[in-house]
């Protein structure tokens, strides 16, 4: 693991070997932290993960909106995304046969990005009551992963439901 909980905060795990640097650089890139670090190299990782207190950097994010079912749903969604497994989920209504693409944390909330019959759907995790994995698999769509990683898409996540309803109103 590349992160650890210390004093109520998550941070990069203190480096235990030079072999950990590539893993930590990968963690920084894969989680989007790379966007806010002006420099990413082994020397910086060594400095950020040494045993000196206090840490020279603190990245402060708003706490996520977490529901009682959050941990179970979150781990099932991670598994389904990683292994390209269709899911069904329950919010205020039932959504069968979704292709989960990515979980994105933005502005204090987690969002599930999924495809249903080729159409993009966004679900705030706080609205998800249950997740069921099916036995059906799907092929990952690279163009969707590129689209949902764009800053303009991510900044629209809190408004996706409204935008979706508005578009559907005029596409009768």
Walk me through the structure.
Helix content is 33%, strand content 28%. The chain folds into two domains: 3-48, no CATH class; 70-170, SH3 type barrels (Roll), CATH 2.30.30. The N and C termini lie far apart (49 Å). A hairpin with a 2-residue loop joins strand 1 and strand 2. With 172 residues, it is α+β, with helices and mostly antiparallel strands.
Write a brief structural summary.
The protein is of the alpha+beta class. The protein contains 6 helices and 7 strands, in the order ββαααβββββααα.
Question: What's the helix and strand layout?
Answer:
Elements: E1 3-6, E2 9-12, H1 20-30, H2 42-48, H3 70-83, E3 85-90, E4 94-106, E5 109-116, E6 119-124, E7 130-137, H4 142-148, H5 151-156, H6 160-170
Antiparallel strand pairs: 1-2, 3-4, 3-7, 4-5, 5-6
* Amino-to-carboxy terminus distance: 49 Å
What spatial form do the alpha-carbon principal axes imply? elongated
Q: Poorly predicted ranges (pLDDT <50, ≥5 residues)? A: none
Q: How many DSSP helices?
A: 6
**Radius of gyration from the alpha-carbon trace, in angstroms:** 18 Å
Secondary-structure arrangement, i.e. CATH architecture of the largest domain? Roll
Major β-sheet profile: 5 strands, antiparallel
N-to-C series of helices and strands: EEHHHEEEEEHHH
- Assembly status: single chain
Determine the mean pLDDT.
81
Taking strands numbered 1, 2, ... along the chain, how are they ordered across the largest sheet? Answer: 6-5-4-3-7
Number of domains: 2
The fold-level CATH name of the largest domain is: SH3 type barrels
Domain WYL: 98-131
Protein name: Transcriptional regulator
């Amino acid at each position: 693991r590349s992160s650890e909980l210390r004093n109520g905060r998550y941070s990069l795990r203190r480096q235990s070997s030079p072999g950990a640097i590539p893993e930590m650089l990968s963690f920084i890139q894969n989680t989007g932290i790379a966007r806010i670090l002006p420099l990413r190299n082994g020397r910086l990782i060594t400095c950020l993960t040494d045993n000196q207190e206090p840490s020279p950097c603190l990245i402060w994010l708003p706490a996520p909106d977490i529901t009682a079912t959050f941990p179970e749903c979150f781990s099932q969604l991670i598994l389904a995304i990683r292994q390209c497994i269709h899911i069904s989920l329950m919010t205020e209504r039932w959504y069968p046969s979704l292709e989960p693409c990515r979980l994105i944390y933005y502005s204090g909330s987690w969002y599930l990005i999924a495809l249903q019959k080729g159409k993009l759907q966004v679900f705030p995790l706080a609205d998800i009551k249950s997740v069921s994995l099916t036995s059906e698999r799907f092929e990952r769509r690279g163009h969707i992963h590129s689209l949902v990683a764009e800053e303009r898409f991510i900044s629209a996540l809190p408004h996706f439901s409204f935008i979706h309803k508005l578009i559907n109103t005029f596409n009768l």
